[in-house]
Amino acid sequence: MTHPARLRPPRRRDDVTTAMAAAEKAQRYEAFVSDVLQRDLRRVQEQRDGVFEQQAQVLQLRTALTRLQEAAAPLRTQVDLGCNFFVTAEVPSTERVFVALGYGFYAELTLPEALRHLDRRSRLLEQLSESLTRDGAKIRAHIRLVLEGLRELQGLQDPPTTSDP
Hints:
Elements: H1 4-7, H2 12-70, E1 75-80, E2 86-91, E3 96-102, E4 105-110, H3 111-154
Helix pairs in contact: 2-3
């Protein structure tokens, strides 16, 4: 024979407590998405944008070095001395250039060595940008997963699906 307490319907107080617990969980998940996941996504996107800027600088420098390599005559340029005060300068030999390595270090390299260095740097930056892109995709997937869990927890319908091209 079954116990009489098991035959009774659940009390109204239990329903209210369950609803409050679900609302509290939903609020914690929403805070996790906005405070942690979206912050991490912004950070990764900012880092990736910085890598893209470095890639643009490397490409610009590679173009300038290629032009220097092709030019046979001495280089004539204008140098800013400060406060937009420019003077004309002539570089008699452009066989060697100083390349910024980072952290205040420079290397004196020949033009072919500098171009090889830029190729290596470009490959490393490409790998870093791909890694950051993958990290961003993972974070977006986590956000989507948590939002799906929230939707399920709150008993909402699924949003209309969009087809990605």
